Amino acid sequence: MKNRLKVLRAERDWTQAQLAEALDVSRQTVNAIETGKFDPSLPLAFRAARLFGLPIEEIFHDPALEHDGSSLATKTKKDTYV
Amino acid sequence: MNQLKPPEHGYQSRIRTHVIRLFRWNGAWAAATALMAFGPKFLWNKALVFTLLAVGLDVAVGVGMILANKDYLAELDELQRKVQLNSTGITLGVAVVAGVPFSMMAAYHVIPFHADVAYLLILMSLTFAVSNLYGTRRYR
Question: What is the CATH number of domain A2-81?
Fold first, then answer.
């Protein structure tokens, strides 16, 4: 899973340590998420979304969906109705 | 700059409190175990009542240490907990895989010494330390 955590954090001029405290996790966890080494749980992803005031899908993306150029919604619709 | 207000009892401060608590319980358990191991010989000349009291104290402090460790794990964030879980799994696996053949070798006199549980504890401690260090560095 890809994410824009680093960009969003940089835009707000926050350090990893500040973001970690705000999300109630360790700095190591923020770093691991930013570098793509660790995927956060849904509750943590929601906490990040709340903190940045953005919908969750604007922070976290599925790279597989970006590759084939279709969204999950389109795919599901196709699979269901065809 | 959009400033973040740090929480009063933030993650780091809570973890620090739990680590100190865990450290104290570990120290107390080591002291109680030492008392149980050496007390009968050096302090109370193998008097049964005192030996039983020392065993009871060791078990009670051991339970306290387990609970402190449980609380510490519950307080960790999801990545730290994953690292701890991996380390625990590896340690348990190594203990079983190495412990059983070691015990068998002693039973059939393949090794010239008694398969003391202390060897297993040392192996488990080293395995946990190495796997924990590896896990921590992997996600750094």
Answer: 1.10.260.40
Q: What is the mean pLDDT of residues B71-94?
A: 97
Is A29 touching B (CB cutoff 8 A)?
Answer: yes
This model of the complex carries an ipTM of 0.78
Both tokens assigned to B25: 């319980």
Taking an 8 Å cut-off on Cβ atoms, the answer to whether B77 and A31 are in contact is no
Chain A residues close to B138, C-beta within 8 Å: 37
- Residue B112 to residues B97, B106, B117, B118, B122: CA-CA distances in angstroms? 20, 7, 16, 16, 19
| Boundaries of domain holding B137 | 77-140
Residues 61-80 of A with CB under 8 A from B: none
Q: Tens digits of per-residue pLDDT, B30-49?
A: 999 999 999 999 999 999 99
Among A34, A38, A7, A18, which Cα is nearest to B139's? A38
